[in-house]
Amino acid sequence: MSLWSRISDALAALGAGESLSEVFSRLRTPPERTVAFTIAVIALSAKMAKADGLVTKDEVTAFREVFHIPPADEPAAARVFNMAREDVAGFETYAERIARMFRVDGQPCGQDSVLCDLMEGLFHIAAADGEYHPAEEAFLSRVAEIFGMERPAFERLRARYAPEYGPDPYTVLGVSPDATLEDIRAVWRAEVRQTHPDRMIARGVPEEAVRLAERRMQAINQAWEDIQAGRAA
To answer: Which of 148, 224, 161 minimizes the C-alpha distance to 192?
Structure first.
């Protein structure tokens, strides 16, 4: 059964009176967690679009870069988006349910987590039109807070995607400008390992979302190259 077929099955529960946010509570184990991740990206993207007041073609294109939707399954994706956008429940309700599903107890939302992957997908969509709106900043800051993402991790993502906030290579890698080159090299290598597609799939991220790793890898490698060049000057 395809990802989108499973999403359609999950949405069938809505006909029995469940809200979209309630559907998340039943999607806790593989492969349903992949369905939950995809629904989460769509639902929070819809709430984010409502925050800044519009959905641009660039944002739609950005979503399709992550999730390839067969024509036959487009109605299911559109249904999730429209339901989330029109639902009276606030985005915080969605974010809290998602956080409970994917957060490791007692652990912050670090770089090596499904919640961080989800945040990266939201940044990818938010920044797709070349403008990072203040409403999107407020929205994503609050979602990150609910997810338990520490501020430096949030700023690393923002530096990669929002032009006006970066790209400072030290922020992108999450290291201090005072760190030794060897210490920075160790962080860079760890980032590369965490960005490997097999590592992401093992975290329960849909294969479609692994495409985000391509841009992340480019940003990581560019930051490392910029730091090396700066130290050699």
So the answer is: 224
Report residue 232 as tokens. 């050699």
Answer for the pair 87, 20: CB distance below 8 angstroms, yes or no: yes
Report whether 118 contacts 34 (CB < 8 A).
no
Q: Which residues, in sequence order, are CB contacts of 127 under 8 Å at separation 6+?
A: 161, 162, 163
Cα–Cα distance for residue pair 159/222, rounded to 1 Å? 13
Whole-number Å distance between alpha carbons of 120 and 157: 7
**pTM score, whole prediction:** 0.72
Q: How many residues does the chain have?
A: 233
pLDDT along the chain (233 residues), means of 10: 60 62 63 68 79 69 69 75 73 81 58 73 80 87 91 85 76 88 93 80 65 78 91 78
- CA dihedral angle for residue 156, residue 160, residue 162, residue 165, rounded to 10 degrees: 60
169: tokens are: 């290579």
φ/ψ (deg, to 5) at 178: -85, -5
Give the residue among 215, 7, 218, 41 at the shortest CA–CA distance from 126.
41
Q: How far apart are CA 187 and CA 202, in angstroms?
A: 21
